[in-house]
Amino acid sequence: MDQYILSRNNVKINGKGRQPMVFAPGFGCDQTVWKTVAKAFEEDYQVVLFDYVGSGNSDLSAYDSGKYSELTGYAQDIIDIGSVLELNNAIFVGHSVSSIIGMLASIKRPELFSKLIMIGPSPCYLNHPPKYIGGFEKEQLIGLLDMMEKNYIGWATMFAQTVTNNTNFPEITDDLKDRFCSTDPIIARQFAEATFFSDNRDDLKKVQTPSLILQCSDDIIASEEVGQYMHQHLSNSTLKYMGATGHCPHLSHPEETINLIKDYLVNN
Question: Any idea where the AB hydrolase-1 domain is (predicted)?
């Protein structure tokens, strides 16, 4: 069973340190998205990388549309990996939706992580005025899912541009598009539905683990208002504003991402 889980999620372990540091990729990406950032921590930590079922070199035969229709299914996989590797007080680094997936895992298993590093997190992408503005109307998200179904390559191109939101990084936009296109369209659509229609605002108050929120500027996916909401409702959280633009600072601004994470770990 242990080997099955490690194979299912294509778990890779590197680094010379003793404290585990788990890196979780965002929607439509695999563990290689952390290539530059994760390497910077290998000298001092045990770096754990993995792929969600349905992406990268994970076991596609393990995909269960019922289990993965909600983010809790992905959170359970992180808990499984933690159990197999006997992780305790690990540092979790999650990008985008993975921030929330890791948060859900920490609620269920508080001993698993000692710190949550959240890059561009959002507890809810839908607008619920006047108290909460997630950034999207329901009709927009339904249109996004319809486009995935009817013109997946067109959607991948459009969404990669939206996520990057910076014409100075065409190579990152192209990289994201290729990553999206390499994912099974049916699985990608189901993951998108689980991501964009989830509402985890009520879960924020359940989190016991100290957290760092890294907030990019000009982030269409997770706005500054959303980052502030996370900070206000997560006890023991630190909010840092980045010079990085868009939604993928670990790709566009890896040095700034590395430095902010290291600074937080040294001082907290």
Answer: 21-258
Q: Where are the domains of the chain?
A: 2-125+200-267
CATH assignment of 2-125+200-267, among 3.30.300.20, 3.90.950.10, 3.30.70.100, 3.40.50.1820: 3.40.50.1820
DSSP 155-208: HHHHHHHHHH--TT-HHHHHHHHHHHHTS-HHHHHHHHHHHHT-B-GGGGGG--
Angle (CA) 221-235-45 rounded to 5° is 75
Q: pLDDT digit string (tens) for 32-86? A: 999 999 999 999 999 999 999 999 999 999 999 999 999 999 999 999 999 999 9
Specify the pTM.
0.96
Give the residue numbers annotated as catalytic, written as ranges: 96, 219, 247
Task: Give residue-wise pLDDT tens across range 131-184.
Answer: 999 999 999 999 999 999 999 999 989 999 999 988 888 999 999 999 988 888
